[in-house]
Amino acid sequence: MTKTVLYARVSTADQTLDHQHKQAEQAGFKIDKVVADHGVSGVSTKLAERPEGKRLFDILRPGDTLVVRWVDRLGRDYQDVSDSIRHFMRDGVIIKTVINAMVFDGATKDPIQKAVRDALIAFMAATAEAQAVATKEAQKAGIEAAKADPKTYRGRKPSYDRDGFDRVARMLDNGAGASAIAKETGLTRQTVLRIKGDRAGAEKALALWDSARG
Hints:
The protein has 214 residues and is an alpha/beta fold. The protein is built from nine helices and five strands, in the order βαβαβαββαααααα. The chain has a five-stranded mixed β-sheet with strand order 2-1-3-4-5, sandwiched between helices.
């Protein structure tokens, strides 16, 4: 009997496994098993090296479905994301994302569909890495500013957390409108518009408060 497995990576205290599980169920997935890694960076730790992520390679069988909120849960490095997706497809596993309802199926035989699928994998993997690099650079800038003068640079605490910011950025990149993003993330439309208008500044403000907590 085939099964549907949700893999969640919860990298910060602001993210929750329940949220990712609820999102998947609201998207219509009937989850048979949940596998989750907590406090694990997708940038520095490959999927096959994570305490729980590596279990996926053992428990998933041909015909099973692997559900992730988005491909960045599998990794934030281009090679890791693309290699993981292709590995599972070769094993007959179907990968589906909650956000944007992407489907990666190795059973595809039509050459045109295969070309489109492979191009999409490359694009999504590249996007995951690009977002990781941008986040890292903004965090670095924010931390340097906070060290220089924390009281001057920190400002008001953002109304969004790291997970919320990443979701807004992703949806903006995919062309979603401010109202739709606000409804999906639970943030106000004004907050979404502020992030849209000055994404670097919004990321810097978040990084400053992250550094202050550390």
